[in-house]
Amino acid sequence: MDREKMLSYILDSYPYPIVFVDCEHIIRYMNKRAEYHYYQERGYRELIGKSLFDCHQNPKSEEMIKSCVEKLKKHANEVFLMVNGRNERIYIVPVRDDLGDLIGYFERFEMNLQK
Predict the structure, then answer these.
(1) Entry pTM
(2) For residues 43-68, b (16+ Cβ closer than 10 Å) or e, as one string?
(3) Among 3.30.70.120, 3.30.750.200, 3.30.450.20, 3.20.20.140, what is the CATH number of 3-111?
(4) Partners of 60 in the β-ladder
(5) Of 108, 100, 102, 115, whose CA–CA distance to 17 is shortest?
(6) What InterPro entries does its record include (predicted)?
């Protein structure tokens, strides 16, 4: 099995959406859970290659995401974003190259056990 296929299977087994976005805020990858969430539940189509801000059209959301990415560029490990309507905490996680430079980011979800 080639490495790309193996990594795709690993990411598809994760029970939360994974949407990888490059530093220009262009969506480059979605796992199966993300495809289901955005295409089936939210009604979007063909998001790969489009701006993240086509989904987050609220100026406040765009400002919050850009602010988080600026923190990541300054070598933050991950940045807490919010608790969503499903009571999941959402973090923005950096993806870095071998030199430690930011090449993109994704949202990480986890159950919020506190009420």
Answers:
(1) 0.86
(2) eeeebeeeebbeeeeeeeeeebbeeb
(3) 3.30.450.20
(4) none
(5) 108
(6) PAS-like_dom_sf
Nearest alpha-carbon partner for 30 in 1, 111, 44: 44
Is the confidence at residue 113, as pLDDT, over 80? no
Query: Residues 6 or more apart from 23 whose CB is under 8 A from it?
Result: 69, 102, 103, 104
Evaluate the CA torsion angle 21, 61, 78, 30 in order and state its sign.
negative
pLDDT (0 to 100) of residue 26: 97
